[in-house]
Specification:
The complex is a heterodimer of chains A (about 170) and B (about 120). With about 170 residues, chain A is mainly α. Chain A is built from six helices and three strands; from the N terminus they run H-H-H-E-H-E-E-H-H. Helix content of chain B is about 80%, strand content about 0%. The chains are: A mainly alpha (about 170), B mainly alpha (about 120).
Chain lengths: ~170, ~120
């Protein structure tokens, strides 16, 4: 039963993606998509989800959507503004450094979300990760500090709050 | 009315995309080394690909003469923008890590390198 819930969750993701991508509602297309999604979901479920799913996962999913909405508008705007200012200023004012940024989430999904968010904002890019000591090594184009805790405040505080809520 | 709104929103997003691509191109020439150029490339990937793709989706939905085709165009543009946003970071990670570890790109100018300490104490 629990296996079935996981399978259905993955299947729904893939099928919704397929329908959105093809945007066709003919019978043939829907049937073909159904079969292909079921096959793919059966193959990939064991790699994607290991734990049991419950009702609180719907709440996490809502948080994920909210996060991406907020992230796209506020964080990306701030970061783009900074890098565009650097590139277009007459004198190139950069202070690049590789700083340590600690993180506290435990799951792989949470780590991926934080690292991806850091890299996707222009101005910061994850170069390496130390899973034992819970550190990201982040290349920062205008490093205002090299202290790990302060860098965490400035770079990844928001991402971490949401990652803890979404993936635990 | 609604198609006017969609068209202007879409065109605005596409204009933002053009500006970001322009800045990314200048940044790739002006910035001094590989790692700093990577940041300019990120401007081109998010502001210059994800945002205008969303704009193209809005524009396609609002353009009546296309008929049913507009939903296909909008769907493809929307999913492509989401997938670009989720996956472009993987490429950046791989490039940055490989360039650092292989010492394929000069690190200078750099004010502080935390990763050098780590590589110093762990002999791999």
């Amino acid at each position: 039963m629990k296996k079935l819930t996981r399978f259905i969750a993955v299947f729904l993701y893939i099928y919704a993606f397929y329908i959105m991508f093809t945007a066709s509602t003919t019978e043939f297309s829907l049937t073909l998509g159904f079969i292909a999604s079921a096959l793919l979901a059966a193959l990939s479920t064991p790699f994607l989800i290991q734990r049991n799913l419950g009702a609180h996962d719907l709440k996490s999913f809502a948080y994920l959507l909210l996060y991406y909405f907020r992230y796209m508008i506020i964080e990306e705007y701030k970061a783009h503004k900074q890098v565009i200012k650097i590139v277009l200023s007459r004198k190139l004012d950069i202070k690049p450094a590789i700083v340590k940024v600690p993180y506290s989430v435990k799951t792989d999904y949470g780590m991926t979300l934080i690292a991806g968010s850091i890299t996707n904002t222009p101005g910061t890019c994850v170069v390496d990760v130390d899973e034992k000591r819970h550190l990201f090594y982040v290349h920062w184009i205008y490093a205002t500090t090299i202290e790990p805790e302060k860098a965490r405040e400035e770079i990844s505080k928001v991402f971490e709050e949401y990652a803890a809520k979404i993936f635990g | 009315m609604i198609d006017m709104v969609l068209a202007s929103a879409g065109l605005t997003l596409i204009a933002i995309g053009v500006f970001c691509d322009f800045v990314a191109a200048i940044g790739l020439i002006r910035l001094p080394n590989f790692f700093t150029r990577l940041h300019a490339a990120t401007v081109g990937a998010i502001g210059g690909a994800v945002v205008p793709m969303l704009g193209a989706a809005l524009l396609a939905i609002g353009y009546e003469p296309l008929g049913e085709t507009r939903f296909i165009l909008a769907g493809v543009a929307f999913t492509t923008s989401i997938v670009t946003m989720i996956l472009s970071q993987a490429g950046s990670h791989a490039l940055a890590r490989a360039a650092y570890r292989a010492r394929a790109a000069p690190l200078q100018p750099i004010t502080y390198d935390a990763l050098a300490e780590k590589r110093g104490d762990s002999s791999e």
